[in-house]
Amino acid sequence: MTSRNMATYLRLIGRTGWGRYQLEDYLRDENSTQAVVDAYAPDVEIIEPPSLPHGGVHRGRDAWRVMRQRIEELWDQRFELLDLWEIPEDDVIVLSASMEWTAKATGRSACSPFVSVITFRDGLISRVEIFHHDTKAILDTLEPAATTSGRKE
Q1: Which of 13-22, 33-42, 80-89, 107-116 is the most confident on average?
Q2: Is residue 16 helix, strand or coil?
Q3: Which of 57, 93, 136, 149 is buried deepest, with most CB atoms within 10 A?
Q4: What is the pLDDT of residues 86-123, one digit of tens each?
Q5: What fold does the segment set 4-140 form as a domain?
Q6: Which pairing describes strands 124-132 and 109-121: parallel, antiparallel, or unpaired?
Q7: Does residue 23 surpass a pLDDT of 50?
Q8: Residue ranges per structural domain of the chain
Q9: What residues have CB less than 8 Å from 5, skipping those under 6 apart?
């Protein structure tokens, strides 16, 4: 039997299309964005590494939208869900995924795996803590590539 938490997450995957590998236009349409908002508790807490331009602790659905807008200003993303594990007694799902980040300003890309620890309360996502494998590679996409002479292009 599927737990309430896993059912919530699987419904989110279905509504956003995250189950498709190499998903293009990650969270670009309003239906996908609304699906995330509907799955989040009103006081959801999203934690991203502080070294990223969108990093820090974001509290509430509106803060998540602001964070998403900052990401969309800087990058195009492709998402690949690799695996899901559930710890029902702790109301936690852990996901393993990969994200391709392509900087809009430079065209440079990096693919970095990550793990998210997703905590639930009353059947809604109350906390998402994201652990990116290589934030430097993500940040490097924002910088122009160095030429062989050492100058930036």
Answers
A1: 107-116
A2: helix
A3: 93
A4: 998 899 999 999 999 999 999 999 999 999 999 999 98
A5: Nuclear Transport Factor 2; Chain: A, (3.10.450)
A6: antiparallel
A7: no
A8: 4-140
A9: 86, 88, 91, 92, 93, 120, 123
Torsion, CA 88, CA 93, CA 94, CA 97, rounded to 10:
140
Look-up of token digits 């996502």: 125
Tokens at 79, concatenated: 């998402």
Number of Cα atoms under 13 Å in the Cβ half of residue 15: 16
User: In angstroms, rounded to a whole number, what is the distance separating the alpha carbons of residues 75 and 59?
Assistant: 22
Q: Would you state the pLDDT for residue 21?
A: 41
Token pair recorded at residue 106: 């430079």
Q: What is the pLDDT of residue 147?
A: 54
